[in-house]
Amino acid sequence: MARPQNTSLGLLDEDSVRELFCLSIPARVDCRLPMRKIVSAAFLSLDGVMQAPGGPEEDASGVFRHGGWTKPFWSEATGAAVREGFAEPFDILIGRRTYDIFAGHWPRTPKDDPIGSVFNRVTKYVATHRPESLGWENSEALGPDVLARVRALKASDGPTLLTQGSSELVHLLLANDLVDELRVSIFPVLLGKGKRFFGDASVPRTFELVKSVTAPNGVFLATYQRAGEVKTGSFALEA
To answer: Would you tell me which of 16, 35, 70, 109 could form a disulfide with 12, CB atoms 3.0–4.6 Å apart?
Structure first.
């Protein structure tokens, strides 16, 4: 059952968005078709840090000193599993800081780069206050009401909506129960401080492990799909 929320446009629950969408189209169209899936993907440390996995200069905010922490653990097995995650059609949901990092890198890669060629081609939906400065091809601002636009995109026809990095945007999506799948690559390192993938406002949910790969060096790549409500129990001995 969908969690009730404030009924302003930006805070409609998922079922309400689907109902409004169905009312807006001809009756002959089957409204039971699934909405677009939102997948949140990230590289994580064992303690949940996602900041600056790719290099020292990527994101040093908060005096983060461990940028590039994934590089010593990278392997062919890790790379193959990551590339497989980009095999199905997708568009990207992304925050402005991550967008700027990506826009400074992927357009400069060779045209036959298996990831760069895809990232350059797909639509990038960007949470930003400076839409006029989006210079990367196929980039589109989410607008002033990010939640409302994401809900509208989720209710529309199209490929999977995939987040990359973007901790603040991911926190917003998790806090509004919009994430359908988690794809996390967990590296065997503790970082102590840094931006984290999960925030305190996440809606409680259970997830089902549907795929996993463990690289020889201990990197664990896992895909979890949304399962349902959190159930509780007790180990207390009966009186």
So the answer is: 16
